[in-house]
Write a structure and sequence with these properties.
With 456 residues, this protein is an alpha+beta fold. The protein has helices at residues 2-18, 22-26, 30-53, 56-62, 66-90, 98-136, 212-216, 238-244, 256-268, 280-289, 320-328, 335-352, 355-360, 362-372, 382-393, 414-429, and strands at residues 159-167, 178-187, 193-198, 274-279, 293-297, 301-303, 309-311, 314-318, 373-375, 397-401, 447-448.
Length: 456
């Protein structure tokens, strides 16, 4: 009999987890029981409606409520824990034998902790997310360009263009070299996106007329060799050169990002809205946190100053370090193959990021992101960029890489680059009607972002 009563008590407490108030009704606390059950049904009904009608827009708006969500999750953790304990108490466990009291107490205590943990973890993850977002995305200064406008976050534009950069700054390196340079041009209505890739070794870079860099280099970016065969006047050095010469900008410092945005925009003939820079070497930590990436390596990739390392050909799971060497090695290769391999790594990362793994390593990954990520995207724009990212995920993403033989890096045809950019963007609006009508050869290749990456 005592065993049955103990089992029944545990059963009623467990039922209270999914139907709050059940134990109280059983114990005769009818007003409390009905109040708990009624309140729970109302909240559950509202939550069901929100979930049924939720979209990416709601997810974006939720980024403005992170503090409230954190507090709510913490309150729910305490409330559910207290509910289980009180349900146990009102069922009068004192009427059981001492052994029954100990067993039921331990079981119900474990149950209380179990139901509280998901809410506590949710509160922790949201708090970490807010700390990361607030660190990476700054509030725009008064009067600054780029924040959302009332009624139309895109200020009447049909496209937004984000400069995506991979750099390699660190304590053991001087300055920032932007070795990976791409622009994501996204249609704000459909999400159709063109990824425009520029080689790091583009020479004689032209700057916007009237800009400080154009006044300094009216005939293109050209510097003396700092040692025989070594050039620092290529596209990847524009950021660092601007940072190193604040006198060109009236003494203003840290002008590298804005200068590179204006330069890339001028080269392509489009407006660059924002930039996002990722420390490529720090990115290896993100890959390791995800458990590595499965990549198909088409041939042995040799790396190291003396060719002492190799990423063997074949399909395998690569560590963060090996994935980065695969993406960055120039030994026995060139910058254009390297650009292709970098796209393969980023595509694999997007495809293979497992939600369960991301959650299990969330705090670690967020801490890494705060150190390796830099951007000028205004914090208020995140609300609108989240639904746009959702559109991009389900839209067509093509790639146009300005590499030889399409474009000569030593003597770039700037007008052709602008014409091809305009065509790529125009074709992405109506992808089913894409035509290659430009007469100069070779013809541009508008390809899927994962083309040439091999089967995984």
């Amino acid at each position: 009999m005592s065993t049955r009563r103990a089992a029944a008590l545990i059963g009623w407490v467990a039922l209270s987890v999914v139907a709050p108030g059940a134990a109280h009704l059983r114990a005769g606390w009818k007003r409390t029981g009905y109040a708990l059950l009624g309140g729970y049904l109302v909240v559950a009904g509202c939550a069901a409606v929100v979930i049924a009608t939720a979209d990416a827009g709601l997810a974006g708006r939720a980024l403005n409520w992170l503090t409230q969500i954190t507090v709510t999750a913490a309150v729910c953790a305490v409330a559910w824990f207290s509910l289980v304990i009180h349900s146990f108490v009102v069922l009068r466990p004192g009427t059981l034998t001492r052994a029954g009291q100990v067993v039921t107490g331990l079981v119900c205590g474990a149950l209380a902790v179990t139901v509280a943990v998901p809410f506590a973890l949710a509160a922790q993850y949201v708090a970490v997310s807010q700390r990361t977002i607030d660190t990476v995305f700054a509030e725009p200064a008064a009067g600054a360009r780029g924040g959302p406008e009332a009624g139309d976050p895109w200020a009447g534009r049909d496209r937004v263009n984000v400069l995506l950069l991979g750099g390699d700054w660190g304590n053991d390196r001087i300055g920032v070299r932007t070795d990976s340079i791409n622009v994501a041009s996204m249609d704000v209505h459909t999400g159709n996106t063109v990824l425009l890739g520029l080689p790091r070794n583009l020479e004689h870079v032209l700057f916007p007329p009237g800009s400080p860099m154009a006044q300094r280099f009216p005939y293109g970016f050209r510097l003396p060799e700092y040692k025989p065969g070594w050039r620092e006047d290529l596209l990847f050095s524009v950021w660092q050169y601007a940072d190193d010469h604040p006198e060109l900008f009236g003494g203003r410092r840290h002008m590298g990002p804005e200068t590179l945005k204006e330069t890339i925009g001028y080269i392509l003939g489009i407006r660059i809205d924002w930039y996002a820079l990722v420390n490529i070497w720090g990115f290896a930590k993100i890959i390791d946190a995800l458990g590595g990436l499965v990549l198909t390596v088409d041939r042995d990739i040799v790396f190291g100053k003396y060719g002492e390392g190799v990423v063997p050909a074949g399909t395998r799971r690569l560590s963060g370090a090996d994935a980065l060497w695969y993406a960055r090695s120039r030994t026995g290769s060139d910058d254009y193959n390297r650009m292709r391999r970098q796209r393969c790594v980023f595509n694999a990362l997007l495809d293979q990021a497992d939600p369960a793994t991301v959650l299990s390593r969330f705090t670690e990954m967020a801490a890494v992101m705060r150190k390796i990520f830099q951007t000028d995207v205004p914090r208020p724009m995140l609300e609108h960029l989240v639904p746009l990212a959702w559109k991009v995920k389900h839209a067509e993403v093509t790639s146009l890489q300005f590499v030889p033989p399409l474009i000569s890096t030593a003597s770039p045809d700037w007008e052709r680059i602008r014409l091809l950019t305009a065509k790529a963007i125009r074709d992405s609006v109506f992808p089913g009607h894409r035509r290659h009508r430009l007469s100069p050869t070779p013809q541009p290749v508008f390809s899927p972002i994962d083309e040439g990456c091999g089967a995984v």
